[in-house]
Structure formats: structure tokens, C-alpha cells
Specification:
This protein is mainly α. Helix content is 57%, strand content 7%.
Length: 269
């Protein structure tokens, strides 16, 4: 564990844990400063860059005092309850070119990346079930939205990016399960995902495939028509070529739609 027993997590509300106890990290903006620093992976960030990341284009007039206050608050949080054995723990220092947080990392992001990499290796070795299990373990690391509850421009952009990464992983996991013949088990999860992301065509495609493979071809075609209407209403456009192609193949009852591949997809970390 990074930071001499202090664990940091960002896949949900920012959390720091030492010896099984959660470490108080101060007010929301101070926590936002910490989240931004953790995402620098040990590289310094300039004062101007930190201000822009946390407050955006219109920082308060006394922002320099706030930065100094929050940096001091984080140093106290790192030191609280730490004995001599933890002297080499998280260090937040000014390097001359910026603020640098060393001896600390977002542990859950690292663990997620390791699990997805292992899933890719398992898939390459033909261990398809194990690959799916590893992806499921990666999904359990999420405790909510990325850096949930922290209001900062940099974190808002990262939240969107990680939301997309998470959904891509979920879609790839379900695609693999469908290819392994477990369509029936995932129909309801896909219906929920389509309701949550009504304009996301990949999720509709997976739902159509799952329905079709469980003998519900009319429901699969209805799912396409509903998606087509939503896309037309929202964007004045037709579905993309992948979704249209799947619809056409279902209309002509392409027998290959019921044939599983030997290597279901697993996304990159």
C-alpha cells in the first residue's frame, strides 16, 4: 500500500484510510485540492495550474491564502495519528515549480488498472470465464461517481472521462457474457442501462443481441425502433451504421447472430 499504510481512493467519494480508520480530510475544496494532486501521479503542478484545476477561470480574490490554508490542512491530515514509523508517508511540498504530492497514490485506480490488465491476459490465454471475473472485481471497486461530491472544473472533466471508462468496461463485460451464452441473465441489466443512457447505441446493440439470442426477436426489433425514435427526437439523426447493420441482419434472420465468438472483448484499462 502506498504512503506507509495510508490508502487513497477516488472511485467514489474521496477517501483516505490509515490502519482501517478513515482520515478526516477537511472541507470540500481542501479535498478537491487533494484529489487534483493525487491525479498528478507524483508530478508537480504549478500554483496557477492548481488554482485553475480547483476554481476555474474565476477564482476568489483571496485564492492564494486559500491554497496555502488547504495545503497546510492536508499536511496536518497526513500527520494526524501517524507515528515515527509513518515518517515516510505522504509528503506535500513546494518544489520551486509547483506543489508535489509524493508517497501517495490513488490506490483503487491502480488496482482497477491491474485487474483490467490481468483480464486482458486471461482472455489472451483463453481463460474467458476468469477474464469476466476479473472485470467484475474491477467493477466492485466503484463506490459511486468518480471523486463524488467535489466541485472543481478539473475533477468534473475527469468524472465524465471515468464515467465513460466505467460504462465501456461494463459493456465489454456484458458483451463477453452474451458471447458465452449467458444472454438471459443480462437482459434486465441492459434494460436498466438503456434507460439510464437512452442515446448510447452500444448499449442498445447489446440489448438487441441479448433479446435476439433468447428468442425474443420481436422485442429486439422493438428496442431498435425505440432507440431510433429517441435519437431522431434528440438529435434529428438516424442510428449509426453498427446499429442499423444489426437491425438489418435481424430482419433477414442472419444465422451468424446466434454464433458465439471464442474471444469476447475486454476493454483496456
Amino acid at each position: 500500500m502506498v504512503g506507509e499504510g495510508m490508502r487513497f481512493e477516488l472511485l467514489g467519494p474521496l477517501r483516505a484510510v490509515r490502519s482501517g480508520e478513515e482520515v478526516p480530510l477537511g472541507p470540500p475544496k481542501q479535498r478537491a485540492v487533494l484529489a487534483v494532486l493525487l491525479l498528478q501521479d507524483g508530478h508537480p503542478i504549478s500554483y496557477e495550474g492548481l488554482v485553475d484545476a480547483v476554481w476555474g477561470d474565476e477564482p476568489p480574490a483571496h485564492v492564494r491564502n486559500l491554497v496555502q490554508k488547504y495545503v497546510s490542512g492536508l499536511r496536518r491530515a497526513f500527520a494526524s495519528g501517524a507515528g515515527a514509523a509513518n515518517a515516510a508517508g505522504p509528503i506535500l511540498a513546494w518544489t520551486g515549480s509547483g506543489y508535489r504530492l509524493s508517497g501517495a497514490a490513488a490506490d483503487d485506480l491502480r488496482e482497477r488498472r491491474q485487474l483490467i490488465d490481468a483480464a486482458l491476459a486471461a482472455r489472451g490465454a483463453g481463460q474467458l470465464r476468469y477474464a469476466g471475473e476479473l472485470v467484475d472485481r474491477a467493477e466492485t471497486l466503484w463506490r459511486g461517481e468518480f471523486a463524488e461530491g467535489l466541485n472543481a472544473p478539473y475533477l468534473a472533466a475527469e468524472r465524465l472521462r471515468w464515467r465513460e471508462k466505467r460504462l465501456t468496461v461494463v459493456e465489454a463485460r456484458i458483451a463477453g457474457e452474451i458471447e458465452l451464452g449467458r444472454s438471459f441473465e443480462y437482459v434486465h441489466e441492459l434494460i436498466r442501462l438503456v434507460a439510464a443512457h437512452p442515446l448510447r447505441e452500444r448499449t442498445v446493440e447489446l440489448l438487441m443481441n441479448a433479446l435476439y439470442r433468447t428468442g425474443r426477436s420481436s422485442d429486439a426489433l422493438l428496442a431498435f425502433e425505440e432507440a431510433r425514435r429517441r435519437i431522431a427526437d434528440a438529435m434529428g439523426a438516424d442510428p449509426g451504421p453498427a446499429l442499423r447493420s444489426l437491425h438489418e441482419r435481424m430482419l433477414r434472420q442472419d444465422p451468424e447472430l446466434l454464433t458465439s465468438r471464442t474471444s469476447p472483448p475486454v476493454p483496456a484499462a
